[in-house]
Specification:
By secondary structure, the chain is an alpha+beta fold. The chain has a single domain, classed as HIT family, subunit A. The chain contains 2 helices and 5 strands, in the order αβββαββ. The chain has helices at about 10-15, 60-75; strands at about 25, 30, 40-45, 80-85, 100-105. Strands 1-2-3-5-4 form a 5-stranded antiparallel beta sheet, with helices on one face. β1 (about 25) and β2 form a beta hairpin. The two termini are about 25 Å apart. The structure holds adenosine monophosphate and zinc ion (ZN). Zinc ion (ZN) binds next to α1. Zinc ion binds near residues 4, 7, 10 and 49.
Length: about 120
């Protein structure tokens, strides 16, 4: 799907909206969530506008897994003891930004964070 002018994550992917780039690969970009659930909460997005995981080409699977692991490694070096991966797909599941994105939420033992889904 072509880039979407109105989509905030497309604008971030095009570097029109500046974010701190945590990690980047050919097709994916990782940057901090603006409303972090925990310190280091990171979003991983495809650079192209895919609405959700159903539209994401399956052959990008190994690339995104590689990027997830690089971000996680960074967070673990910074002190995270674990992390959750969360992805909301479609509005019924709580997806607000309709450009596919994965949440990487760093965790520590006893941090009392409770993840809520829609
Ligand atoms: P959801 O679509 O429910 O998975 O949530 C969208 C997430 O995107 C929320 O956690 C927001 O805090 C985050 N978010 C929205 N706009 C921005 C932005 N401009 N930069 C970084 N994170 C954002
Ligand atoms: Zn988009």
């Amino acid at each position: 799907m072509a880039d979407n002018n109105e989509c905030i994550f497309c604008r971030i992917a095009r570097k029109e909206v500046k974010v701190e780039v945590i990690e980047e690969s050919e097709n994916f970009l990782a940057f901090p969530d603006a409303n972090p659930i925990s310190e280091g909460h990171t979003l991983i997005i495809p650079k192209k506008h895919f609405a959700n995981i159903m539209d994401l080409p399956s052959d990008l699977g190994s690339e995104i897994v590689g990027l997830i692991k690089r971000v996680a490694e960074k967070r673990i070096k910074e002190g995270a003891e674990g992390f959750n991966l969360l992805m909301n797909n479609f509005e019924a599941a709580g997806q607000v930004i309709l450009h596919a994105h994965l949440h990487l939420i760093p965790r520590k033992k006893g941090d009392k964070i409770r993840l809520k889904t829609a």
